[in-house]
Structure formats: structure tokens, C-alpha cells
Amino acid sequence: MSTSTGDRNPPQDTSSGPGGSASSQTSNGGYNTQRTGQGAQYSDELDNSEDLVSEVEEEEMPEETEEEYQTKQAVLKASLPFVHQYGWTKKAIVAGAESLGMPSMVHGMFPRGGAELVFYFYEESNKELESFLKQKVTELKEKDEKIKTGPFIHDAIETRLRMIIPYIDKWPQAMAIQTLPQNAVQSWTNLSRVVDDIWFYAGDKSNDFNWYTKRGSLAAVYKSTEIYLIQDRSEDYTDTWNFLENRLEDVVSAGHLARNLQETNTVLSEGAKGFCVMTRNLLGMNNR
Amino acid sequence: ISQRAKDEKTRKLLSRIIRVDQAGELGADRIYAGQIAVLGNTPVGPIIQEMKEQEQEHLETFNKLIVEKRVRPTALLPLWNIAGFALGAGTALLGKEGAMACTVAVESVIGEHYNSQIRDLMEDDPEKHKELIKKLSKFRDDELHHHDTGLEHDAEKAPMYDALSQVIKVGCIGAIWLSERI
Fold first, then answer.
1. How far is it, in rounded angstroms, from Cα A130 to Cα A202?
2. Residues A137-170: tens digit of each pLDDT
3. Within an 8 Å CB–CB cutoff, is residue A64 touching chain B?
4. From start to end residue, where is composition biased (Polar residues) (chain A) (predicted)?
5. Which residues of chain B does A62 touch, with a Cβ-Cβ cutoff of 8 Å?
6. Cα(A227)–Cα(B143) distance, rounded to whole angstroms?
7. CA atoms within 13 A on the CB side of B130
8. What pTM does this model have?
């Protein structure tokens, strides 16, 4: 959530893949956004010449071009069918590239190897979830119905998790890859995307710390359900969806508990204050 | 630079601006609340109250923008809530001049900050951000008005004015830096 490098800036490739010749000049093209931000911040203090330098540097070190991006996406898409055979690895990417008629050296465009495939799949699934949510909201609006938060969130998580099912044989490997330290930040960003989208389309309007508690609790529900899913052997995974329902209920009752505690606290403190005033009255202190 | 990358850059800029402005207005509102808690019954009370109400208007604007533009609010909001009140009450305990000195210091940092945000927005895309630039300009003018009000009410007569002013300014700049990122 707080990454400044953004989620679409993979590290710079070292070999020159198709259309990637400009990249060999750069050493840290993926960090341009950070530098621009700093440039704007300090422009008050630096003199104009240093502004020019940062501008020139920006031009010489372009971020990944659109062509590069599209090529990578195409290769990753073609690699997904090979995951069952090779897992989420470089081998799958090579197989995918070769199926498109590209040389196997293309795997050099993916320095993070199998993780790139995992992230591609995750991001594509997130996009699919978003269009599903958008459509649902539009349907409800047309029928002039209000969104019922509970069922809406349940449906959203179920839909998103069902996208994993085709790859469930190799999903534990994907989950393990996501927990590696070098992939942790991107995984966190991906998960945040899921819960943020779900809450946004469910109609969340919070603008204070509740923003965090809502998303945090939903992320916990999602993660735990995902873990349950990969070891579930029931018919159509009905056990998982029951598990999900129970976790969501837990969150709701935790919210009620929090509110009750707050109210209790107010009542108790009012009571304590009243008791103090009464004591002071009895001792005649209030009249001195 | 591809359109996608450009959009991403704009989105990050907007996110950062709205996030830090919401935090700033909440902080300012709480500072005035702290000052009123101490000086509410004195002659300067109504003046502070008026400034507080303006900050509240600003805060509501940014609260709406946070939802509208899908911006993540800063996780430090509870911290600024408490720290703002403490700063307001603390400086108010130094007397009316102390409270005014705090106001002057904070508002001058905020004024500069709004200006640099307006510059960044104009650099990015003056047409697209026209609405927001207009709002920020109005808020900046309000804040500078508060700054001048503070000076009018003997801010400079506060005890250790220079040191107090510097410390508060540095604190504000640090808070702004943190809220932009966290």
C-alpha cells in the first residue's frame, strides 16, 4: 500500500528482448517515479540547472515502453497453461514463449522468474474481480436495490478465490513464492488491491482509521480462506465457503464487540465522574 | 513515457496531495480545538473559534475527496489527532501570545506547502486539475489570512518566539513528510 515504486514497474531487464534496446542504458528505470517525486519536492531549494539535469536524466532513462509491456503480458499469458506441468517457474515461461514462436532467451525479460508468472496471474484475476464487482453494482443499481454488505463481500471473495481453482494443484507453490522476502512487497500490494476493490464497490465511504481496520480484517479473512481452500477436499469446495461465512461473521461480531466496549466505557466513565461529584458534595468540598 | 505510466504518476501525485492535506486539516482543526480548550472563555476565544470553523470546512472537503478519488488516508491520523490537540493546548497555556505564535508558525508552513502542491499540479496537468487547483488556492488564501490574524494578535510577543516558531515549523514539516508516505 505504501510502496512508492508502484506495482507496474518490474526491475530492469539485462538482456535485450524484443523492443527492449533502450533499456540497456538504464540501471534503475523502475525508480523514476521516486526520483521525479523528490525532484518536485526539492525544486524550491535547488537551482534551475539541477532541475534541468533531472529532466534530461528522465528522458534518457524511459520507463518500460508500451511495446515491452505488451510483449511481456503476451508471453506470461501463453505460459499459464504450462503451469500444471512445470509449476510457477522459468521453465513454464520458456515453454510459453516458445509456444508463441519466440526464442527461449526471452526468459531474461523476467528476472524474478516464476514469481512474475504468479504476479501476472494475480493481477489478471484482480482485474477480472473488478469487472465482476462493477457489473454487480450496475445490476443492483438498475434494479434499484441497496447493496447488502455481508452477502456482497461473501460473493466477492468466493468469486475471487474460485479463480484459483483451475490452478489449485500448483497454488501452494504460488503461495510459497509470494512469501519470499523479495516478493513480499508486491504480494502485499496485490492483496491490498483485492480488499480495497471489494470494499470500494461494496460502498465503503470511510475516510479515517476505519479504512485500515476494514481492509485489514478483510485481508485476514481472505488469506485464511485461501489457506483453507488449498486443503479442502469437499464437493465444489462447499466447506471452504462455509468457513468463509464463519470468518465473516466473526468480523461482524468483533465490530459489535468493539462498539459495545466503547459504549460501556462511556457509561462507566460517566458513572465514575458522577460518583466523584457525589463524594465531593457529601464532603462539602464543592462549596468551599 | 507511455500513457499508462503517466496516468500512474498523476494518480500517485494526487494520492499524496489529498492524503497529506486531509491529515493537515485534521491537525489544524485539532490544534485550534486544543487552544479553545484553554483560551475558549477569553476575548480571543471567538477569533480562534472562527478559524477552527474554517479549518473544519477544509477538512470536510478533503474527507469527500478521499472517498471520491479513492485515496488511502494516512495511517497516522490518530497520532495527529492527539498531537494536534496537545500542541494547541500546550501553546495556549503560554498565553494568548503563545497560541497565536503557534498559529503563525503552522499556517506559514501550510501556506508554503499548498503553494508547492499547486506548482506540482500545474506542472503535471493544469487543465485536468483545474478544480483541485482552485480549491487549494482558496484554502491557501484562508490559511494565510489565519497567519496574518495571528500576527495581528501579538504572536511575536510570545515567550521565546523565535525558538518556539522554529520548533513548530520543523515539527510540521516532519509531519507532512510522514503523512505523504505513511
1. 11
2. 999 888 888 888 889 999 999 999 999 999 999 9
3. yes
4. 1-41
5. 1
6. 51
7. 2
8. 0.77
Mark yes or no for CB contact B12/A4 under 8 Å.
yes
Of A8, A36, A212, the CB nearest to B75: A212
DSSP B142: H
| Contact between A102 and A75 (Cβ < 8 Å) | yes
Measure in Å the smallest separation between the Cα of B157 and chain A Cα atoms. 30
Taking alpha carbons only, the member of B127, B60, B126, B116 closest to residue A41 is B116
Give me the residue spans of the domains in chain A.
66-109, 118-287
CA distance B96 to chain A (A): 30
CB contact under 8 A, B67 and A1: no
Mark yes or no for CB contact A40/B120 under 8 Å.
Answer: yes
pLDDT band at A132 (very low <50, low <70, confident <90, very high): very high
pLDDT digits (tens, 9 = 90+) for A29-56: 444 444 444 444 444 544 444 444 444 4
| Distance between start and end Cα atoms, chain A | 58
Assign a CATH topology to domain A118-287: Tetracycline Repressor; domain 2 (1.10.357)
Q: Identify the sign of the CA torsion A154, A159, A162, A164.
A: negative
User: Are residues A64 and B72, on separate chains, in Cβ contact within 8 Å?
Assistant: no
* Residue of A26, A51, A207, A212 best to disrupt the B interface, most CBs of B under 10 A: A207
Of the residues B6, B11, B12, B14, the best mutation for testing chain A's interface (the one with the most A CB atoms within 10 Å of its CB) is B12
Residues from chain A contacting residue B9 (CB–CB below 8 Å): 33, 36
Q: What are phi and psi of B159, to 5 degrees?
A: -60, 135
CB contact under 8 A, B67 and A207: yes
